[in-house]
Design goal:
By secondary structure, the protein is of the alpha/beta class. It has four domains: about 130 residues, Response regulator (Rossmann fold, 3-Layer(aba) Sandwich), CATH 3.40.50; about 160 residues, P-loop containing nucleotide triphosphate hydrolases (Rossmann fold); about 70 residues, Helicase, Ruva Protein, domain 3 (Orthogonal Bundle); about 50 residues, Orthogonal Bundle (Arc Repressor Mutant, subunit A). Helix content is about 50%, strand content about 15%. Strand 6, helix 4 and strand 7 form a beta-alpha-beta unit. The longest helix has 27 residues.
C-alpha cells in the first residue's frame, strides 16, 4: 500500500506543485484548502503524513496540531510555511509538529524527511505488534540470597533512568534481565533496541549504531538511520560491550554524555533520548588495565552495576529454574522428580541457564510427553565426569596452578566462594585467574 499524504494549504500553486511531485514518487496524495475540509478527510481516511500550512482561511494550522496528535499520535506532521520566524517553529514543535520547513521548499529534501519518518513509523508499529503478541520476558529470580539481591537491584534500576551495566558469564540471562527492566520502566511503550557488539566490528558496528549517509563508504548506497536513532525515547541495549573497538568507544562516549551523535559521512549533529543498558561477560576493569577498554567509558557505564551469578553459584534455585523452564516449554508435563533435580545438581553447567534450557528442551522431546527421567539427559553424565583436571600437566607453573584451581572447583561443585576460601585467595582473584586461563585456552 502506498503511503498516504494530506496537503493542507490554501495556495493552489503550492498544492499543485507538491501533488504532482509526490504522486510521481508513489505517494497517494489528498489536499484540503481549509481545516474543516482537512478534518473531514482525516475522519474518512487513514493518513501517514500531513503537510500543513500555518495560516488558513478558517484558522491557524498550529492550533489544529494537538487535535491530530490526540487522534493519531503516529501521524507525521510537517509544517510548510512562508513564516520563517523561530518563535513560530518552536511553538509548532511544542504543539507536536515533527518538522518545520519554510518556503520555497526543496522537494528532494522533503522526500528524504518523509521517507525517514515512514521508516520510523514502520519500526514503531512492528515493535508495538511484537509487544502485544509476545509475552514479556519473566526471568525466574529464585530464592537464593544472591538472586534476591539481583531482583532488588533490577527493580531499583527499572524505577530510574541511570546507565545500567549487567555483568555475568555467557548464558546467565543478561539480555533477558535487560528486557525485563525495560518492560517495567517508564520507557516500556518505546522501542527496546538490542545490539551485539561481539558480532559486528569496526565500520559495520559504527554504521549500525550511528547510521550513515549515502557515499559514506563503499557499500553505503543510501542513507540509513542508526540504532541510536531508532532507540530514541526507549532503551538501547549493548550486549557484550567489552568487545567494542576502541575507536568506536570514543565516539560512543560522546553519545552517552550528550545524547548527540553524527551519522557516518555527515556533519549534522543529531539528538536521541535513549536509556542505556550494557552487558558484558568480561572483567571490564581488567580490560581497562590491559588497554583494551577506555577508562572514561568504563566509569561512565558502571554507574549501576548488577552482577548475575553463574548457575553453579545458585544451585539452591535449580529446582525452581527447571520447573520454570519446563512449564514455559510444555505446561502439561508431569512435575520433575527429585532424583532428576539431584542428578542435574551434580553437573557444572558451563553454559549456564542457556545450556540448562537446551538440555531440558531435548529431554522434553525424548520423553514424548511422559515424566522426565535421568535417562532423558544422554551425555550429561559423561560431560560431568569429563573434567579439565584429567588433562596431563604441561609442566609450567601456570598450567599446574590452573590444574589445581580446576580440581578444587570440581571438589566444591563449582562453588567459587568455597573454592576461593580453600585456595586462600579472594573471589575476584579467582575470577581473574579463570579469565586468564580462558584467554590462553
Amino acid at each position: 500500500m502506498n503511503p498516504s499524504i494530506l496537503i493542507v494549504d490554501d495556495d493552489s500553486s503550492t498544492v499543485f506543485g507538491f501533488s504532482k511531485y509526490l504522486a510521481g514518487k508513489g505517494y497517494e496524495v489528498k489536499s484540503a484548502s481549509t481545516l474543516q475540509e482537512a478534518d473531514a478527510i482525516l475522519l474518512s481516511k487513514s493518513l501517514d503524513i500531513i503537510l500543513l500550512d500555518l495560516t488558513l482561511p478558517d484558522g491557524r494550522g498550529i492550533d489544529w496540531i494537538p487535535k491530530i496528535k490526540k487522534k493519531n499520535p503516529e501521524i507525521t506532521i510537517i509544517i510548510i510555511t512562508g513564516d520563517g520566524e523561530i518563535s513560530s517553529a518552536v511553538e509548532a514543535m511544542r504543539r507536536g509538529a515533527d518538522h518545520y520547513l519554510t518556503k520555497p521548499v526543496n522537494l528532494e529534501d522533503l522526500n528524504i524527511f518523509m521517507q525517514k519518518d515512514l521508516e520510523l513509523q514502520n519500526l514503531r508499529r512492528k515493535d508495538e505488534a511484537q509487544r502485544r503478541t509476545q509475552k514479556k520476558a519473566e526471568p525466574y529470580f529464585g530464592n537464593s540470597t544472591v538472586m534476591k539481591r539481583v531482583f532488588e537491584l533490577a527493580s531499583l534500576s527499572a524505577d530510574n533512568d541511570s546507565v545500567l551495566l549487567v555483568e555475568g558469564e555467557t548464558g546467565t540471562g543478561k539480555g533477558v534481565l535487560a528486557r525485563w527492566i525495560h518492560d517495567r520502566s517508564a520507557r516500556a511503550a518505546q522501542p527496546f533496541v538490542e545490539v551485539n557488539c561481539a558480532s559486528l566490528r569496526g565500520e559495520l558496528l559504527s554504521s549500525e549504531l550511528f547510521g550513515h549517509v549515502k557515499g559514506a563508504f563503499t557499500s553505503a548506497v543510501q542513507d540509513r538511520q542508526g540504532l541510536i536513532e531508532v532507540a530514541n525515547g526507549g532503551t538501547l541495549f549493548l550486549d557484550e560491550i567489552g568487545d567494542m573497538d576502541l575507536a568506536i568507544q570514543a565516539q560512543f562516549l560522546k553519545a552517552i554524555e550528550e545524547k548527540t551523535y553524527r551519522r557516518l559521512g555527515e556533519a549534522k549533529e543529531r539528538f536521541s533520548d535513549f536509556r542505556l543498558i550494557c552487558a558484558t561477560n568480561r572483567d571490564l576493569s581488567g580490560e581497562v588495565n590491559a588497554g583494551r577498554f577506555r577508562n572514561d567509558l568504563f566509569y561512565r557505564i558502571c554507574v549501576f552495576p548488577v552482577a548475575l551469578p553463574a548457575l553453579k553459584e545458585r544451585y539452591d534455585d535449580l529446582d525452581g529454574l527447571v520447573n520454570n523452564v519446563v512449564s514455559s516449554l510444555r505446561p502439561d508435563v508431569p512435575p520433575i522428580a527429585e532424583e532428576v533435580i539431584s542428578f542435574l545438581k551434580k553437573y557444572n553447567w558451563p553454559g549456564n541457564i542457556r545450556e540448562l534450557r537446551n538440555m531440558l528442551e531435548r529431554a522434553l522431546i525424548l520423553s514424548q510427553g511422559s515424566a522426565i527421567s535421568v535417562a532423558h539427559f544422554p551425555g550429561l553424565d559423561t560431560a560431568r565426569k569429563s573434567s579439565p583436571t584429567a588433562a596431563a600437566p604441561s609442566g609450567t607453573l601456570d598450567d599446574l596452578e590452573n590444574l589445581h584451581i580446576q580440581k578444587v572447583l570440581s571438589e566444591c561443585d563449582g562453588d567459587t566462594k568455597k573454592a576461593s576460601e580453600i585456595l586462600g585467595i579472594s573471589r575476584a582473584s579467582l575470577y581473574r585467574k579463570l579469565n586468564k586461563t580462558k584467554e590462553f585456552a
